[in-house]
Amino acid sequence: MVTDRIASFDATGVRLVSGERLEADVVVTATGLQVQVFGATDITVDGEPVVLTDHLAYKGMMLSGVPNLAFAIGYTNSSWTLKVGLLCEHFVKLLRHMAEHGYDTARPVPADPSMPTRPFLDFGAGYIQRAVDHLPRQGSRPPWTTSMDYHSDVALLRSGSVTDPELQLTSSTRPDPDRFVDLPAGPRLCYRDSAGTGSSDTRSSGAQDDVGRSGEVVLLVAGLGQDLTAWPDALVDGLVARGLRVVRFDNRDVGRSDRIAAPPPGRLRQLLRRPRSDAYDLADMAADAVGLLDHLGVERAHVLGQSLGGMVAQVVAARRPDRVASLTSVYSTTGAAGVGGTARSTLLRLRHAPAQTVEEAVVRHVGMMRHLSGLGFPLDDAGVAAEEARARGAWERGGGPASRVGPARQIQAIAASGDRTAELGRITAPTLVVNGDRDVMVDPSGGLATVAAIAGARHVVVPGMGHHLATGLVDRLVELVGDHVAAAAAPSPQTPQTPQTDLEGAQQ
Predict the structure, then answer these.
(1) What tens digit of pLDDT does each residue of 109-138 get?
(2) Per-domain residue ranges for the chain?
(3) Strands laid side by side in the 21-23 sheet
(4) Most buried by CB count within 10 Å: which residue of 116, 235, 325, 454?
């Protein structure tokens, strides 16, 4: 065996750069191999050709923006088929998941399409270097990087979930009720609008759409770690039936809205309430809500928030009074020390390690809802079934394990915002505060403090209500919010009132 460079060929052999000469009966050239990417197949989407170099590789097996296309390219530093086998396993898992949930389209979409890119393969062989300008690109972070590490790929492809916020799964026979907006100065938000999807998003009525589009707008802001499906359909339908247009959305870091790139706070930071320097706060989340109203062309909305969402709604009302027609704050607080605290039993549950599987997530969610349900509205069998379905849906919409760090950053946002009592004093919108008489997530003292801080606020205490929108509470909440919105929208000016607390009879 000789290692050298070829200088030239002659009639009977090869002359080398070193001056040596090799006799050869047959010379086989292997340096001119040309890779045919995807077998030289022409790929089009809706008649438009797909230029591979304009797309990112998703998990090394799909292309950004291209639906229902999968490929497999193996390792260049190990057995080729090791990687191909893992890719095929993950692809089969994806097909099974789509079949189980009625999806027929899978389309990878990067949350940050402007991320830095590099060649798909980092391999110095000449035949790869000659083809690199015809291959897709890879991004700067998973799942948009091309891994050449078997153990990492086992975690991602064999053990990892197929659900991912950056993989859009849809059905052509079941229109997706979710809509999206890229905020100019914020994240991409996912929302639903009853004016465009019907009341409960699973059916559409032209009459309902017309009523919702012409009526007052109610913006629903969900609580800690909750996506937009946390609002019961019966509540949405009830508000729409009263002639209201209902808009609900996934807060940043939850559901199908963007995940924020900053690392989540550690356990010690959360315990000491010391946010990271790059933490967002409630004002940032409030700006997201206003940005959504801008996108929808809504000048003023009636803002209803629960728990963390109540805090966000309060900030919107305080900082943008021109955009808030009325405020409803449900089992929320002011951020002041000593009020609205969380019970030790709840804190212990919140400190559990995040769920790793959908089954674990469902068990955790149902257990937490049982814990939070009020004494007057315990979770019955029908309620358990509804919460199990909601938890599975939230796992699916949130990208499975990818959703687990969002709540930590949202808790950090509360800590970063501090005591907002003085700010609440600037709220001029008609305000309704609703909470129960026992709440192990946000102590009812938080409601009292909210009412004391906002001039003219009305306080409704529902005996037996906890920190959960139980089925038995929905009709009463629809009535309270509907009447509050109607009064705020009335043409006659309303005179300021002193704070008023109504202690209701238990609503069963």
Answers:
(1) 998 888 999 998 888 777 778 877 888 999
(2) 1-26, 37-170, 179-342+405-503
(3) 6-9, 13-16, 21-23
(4) 454
CA distances from 343 to 39, 75, 350, 412, 445 (A): 62, 52, 11, 18, 12
**Which residues in the chain come in under a pLDDT of 70?**
30-32, 197-214, 402-403, 492-500, 503, 505-508
The number of residues making up the chain comes to: 508
Q: What's at 111, amino acid-wise?
A: A
Q: What is the pTM of this model?
A: 0.75
CATH 1.10.1040.10 fits 179-342+405-503, yes or no: no
Report CA torsion sign: 194, 195, 201, 203: positive
DSSP 259: P
Widest distance between CA atoms in the chain:
107
The three state secondary structure string of 185-224 is CCCEEEEEEHHHHCCCCCCCCHHHHHHHHHCCEEEEECCC
Residue 70: Cβ within 10 Å count? 17
Question: For every residue of 284-308, which 3-state class applies, written as one string?
Answer: HHHHHHHHHHHHHCCCCEEEEEECH
Distance CA 130, CA 161 (A): 35
Coil, strand, or helix at residue 249?
strand
Which tokens in the block code for residue 248?
Answer: 């609900």
